[in-house]
Amino acid sequence: MNVVNGVTLRGIEALKVEVEVEMTGGLFAISVVGLPDATVKEARERVRAALRSLGLSVKGRVAVNLAPADIPKEGALIDLPIAIGIAHAMGEVRVARPTIFMGELALDGRVRRVRGAVPAALLARKLGLPLFIPEGNAREVSLVKGVTAWKVGHIRDLFAHLQGSSQLEPIAPRDEAEENPEPDPDLSDIKGQAAAKRALEIAAAGHHNVLMTGSPGSGKTLLARALKDILPPLSDEEMMEVLLVRSTVGLPLHSSRQRPFRAIHHTSSTISVCGGGTNLRPGEISLAHRGVLFLDEFTEFRRDLLESLRQPLEDGFIPVSRASGSVTYPARVLLVAACNPCPCGFLGDPQEPCRCSPLAVERYRRKMSGPILDRIDLHVTVPRLTPDELVQFEGQVGESSADVRQRVLRAREVQWRRWGPLGFQCNAELPERALRRQVKIDAEGRRFLKDVAGRVRLSGRGISRVLKVARTIADLAGDEGLTTAHLAEALAFREGGDLPWNR
Amino acid sequence: MLLLNAAGSFDASVLEAADDHGVSWEDIVAGSATALDALGVKGAPREALLGLVSSGWCDGEVDQCEKKGIEIIFFGEARYPPVLNDLRDPPLVLYARGKGLPSGDAVAVVGTRKCTSYGSGCAYDLASMLAGAEVTVVSGGAMGIDGAAHRGSIDSGGRTVAVIGTGADIFYPAQHASLFGEIMEEGVLLGEFPLGTPPRPWQFPRRNRLIAGLCSRCVVVEAPQKSGAVLTARLALETGREVWAVPGRITDTVCRGSNALISDGAMPLVDLGEFACLASGSQGELFPLIPRQGLPANSPLTPEEAEVLRILSDHGDMTVDNIATEGKMSAAAVLRVLGVLSAYGLAVPSGPGRWGSRAARGA
């Protein structure tokens, strides 16, 4: 049985790669077979130099086979197992039982940080194998519980460890559970904007996607950034999912319990947002998994990009298929979109005149319609405060993010208890049928909704959205049934409810 | 007549000239050179006319109109609106699409396409009150003020006339296709241009004289200094109609023209209800504020709603924070109230995140 193993990544999953080495006499050559990519082929030089730095010169023909042979292997993380495999074949070290090694080698034998350490740790845990990882990856791997792992700074130390002359430092499991970062920005730092703050609270509580419309400088981006801190902190399981994606792209660990916030620019390519490329890397939407995805200048986004966001918004994962294979990345995000009311941005502003022709405004508005708008439950407009108003609000201290989060947590719990048995977690996920059967409205509320739906020309889908949002508002208030009051507030956030100022 | 109209630059005065010179219809239609010379027709219109005569365009046009349900009204017919005779150059032909021309008083509500929320709100309210008083609203079917006026009239169950500057089979602007559809249900689309005429800038001033002719009072809601609406007002004045203007903020360029009209002697429109009374010819009778959009009869305003409405009508242009501070309510409560008020049309958004009250503008 082969004892030296490496890993390669497919999506956010690590696959075990067995490293077999055969050495025969002859002129020196190392050949690597088993669908290696360019980085793996180049490993030959790094491995030889690193071994030489230990005074170990490789002679003869060396054949390295990476099994299974039909999976493409990628990345420099396979340097270390190849080096160990060669040393093992030469009899320099003895690997007693199957072990997973990962790491990129420097020419002087140092072991460099690689991406994919967390998936590798999860694999090692599943297979019950010991794991050797680069020192630079120790912090992220320490968050994976139940894995036996050692960190390697230099290949010399690893040799000593395997030869039994000294011991490497094992990685102690670390619990970052209670680390609670300061909200940045805190809701209480944002002056005014009560309507938008309330919308964010509802969005956080029911996992509703939000669209904010407002003039430039009204604080849309700030508000979107505040949302991540009023969402409930990541659970252990969610944290691992976030860690997994970040580790896969090789991003450094971020403060652990805080939900991710990713802003994407409208010039981003579809691949950078959805994932893909030759290596099938995860995209921004997966990096925002369990957190907030912010689309500023929503109307400027290309239609095909928005189109490709639709499915993941619904499913919570995104399949990426290319010629080199197909993988699935997680993509459960809370979408926050922001846009100006018109091309120049000052339509309806009390101070700055709008310079757009009605046709331009109309065209701008039309861009906003489309598939993704159907996934947005909350529409809110954000006023650009006048200097007078800014001064007026200066002294006021609003609620802090922590207080709002308490309410959000309570509302989430209520939803979880109610919908858990039905198989979903929050109000935004409610399918049409459950909505109609399970959401109870009192008689007066029903009359009110019927009356109003006719007056403001609410579509069937529009009514469903009002109902979902009203359900979340009721959950925030701790009420069991829906009443007129909840429906009325939800109506204030309906699509287009805030836009008829250029009727 | 259809021919003369299509050839362009002819109006009813050509008929008088024909009478004076003893030229008969048949001669013109046959394209007789002597007849045309006698009328002094030469150059491009003459060629256009001859071209149309030889191609037999006339019958095709009539067929088309029948197929599309467009009525053709000729000058001198009983159906031809008599008020248009007041114009210096009444059109020879009218294309009408919809329920037919409403009789009775008509008020023109005109203004700029690039209006403010205040302007469109005023136009909407004014039109809906006029509709409540059974006064026909005439406008140009354009974006902005025109559209708001038509919409206001329709929403209150009134009849409205859209005078268009294109062929009657073309909806321009295209965004108003559904609005035009609704106008045709009770009111009428009216135009003088042959079918298929695309929008061209010079057609709209011609269209404006029809608006001026059809109304008995012309209200300019918001118009910059050089605009079609101001032109309409001048034509209306020349035709002997009353000209009114809604006062606007003196700092706004979109109000320069309408305010200048007031300073030139147009009547300032300061009370919608009073104006509606005047326009309908009835005295002192109050009309329902906004018929379709009031509160339902069985649920009066709650104290909270009344308070928010009061704050909005006192100040206007308030953010949710302002209202919450002023009314000592929570933001959620304010939003709740705004949800109800906006659904009933009593509170309207005046800009991103800002609210005003409709009552503040109304009577």
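qc> DSSP finds 17 helices and twelve strands in chain B.
qc> done
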